[in-house]
Amino acid sequence: MSEWLEMGRISDLKDGVMKAVAAAGREFLLVRIGGQYYVADKRCPHMGGDLSRGQLQGTVVTCPRHGSQFDLQDGHVVRWTTWTGLIDVVNRLVRSPRPIRTYPVRLDGDKVLAGI
Ligand code: FES
User: Fold this and answer.
1) What does the alpha-carbon distance between residue 73 and residue 55 come to, in Å, rounded to a whole number?
2) 6, 25, 63, 65: which one has the fewest Cβ atoms less than 10 Å from its Cβ?
3) Whether this model's pTM surpasses 0.85
4) Which tens digits make up the pLDDT trace of 82-97?
5) Ligand 1 touching residue 66 (CB < 6 A)
6) Residue 94, class by beta-carbon neighbours within 10 Å (0-12 exposed, 13-18 middle, 19+ buried)?
7) Domain 4-106 is classified in which CATH homologous superfamily?
8) Residue of minimum CA distance from atom 4 in ligand 1
């Protein structure tokens, strides 16, 4: 981590809402869940799906492209695509399961900051 970047304002983000954020030339996902804030990379590590357009259940975000799921608490893989059978086997050989990158968050007044 080299700097704290502003991801948004507390007053702008409702609970259970995901928001795409552009900062420092990169794309991030900002999420508020139960008063906690999470920041992760916006792009799915599988094939780059836009996680901000996915579904949120608790702290688990589901990619809209192939259904991979990641826990925003630490980025770990909950499910690696919804594919089954041979295509799943081949997929795992070509694109092995990998977590999304998550970032530490701190609040400064109304600002949500992420350590990038
Ligand atoms: S791009 Fe996200 S699951 Fe394939």
Assistant:
1) 16
2) 25
3) yes
4) 999 999 999 999 999 9
5) yes
6) exposed
7) Rieske [2Fe-2S] iron-sulphur domain (2.102.10.10)
8) 66
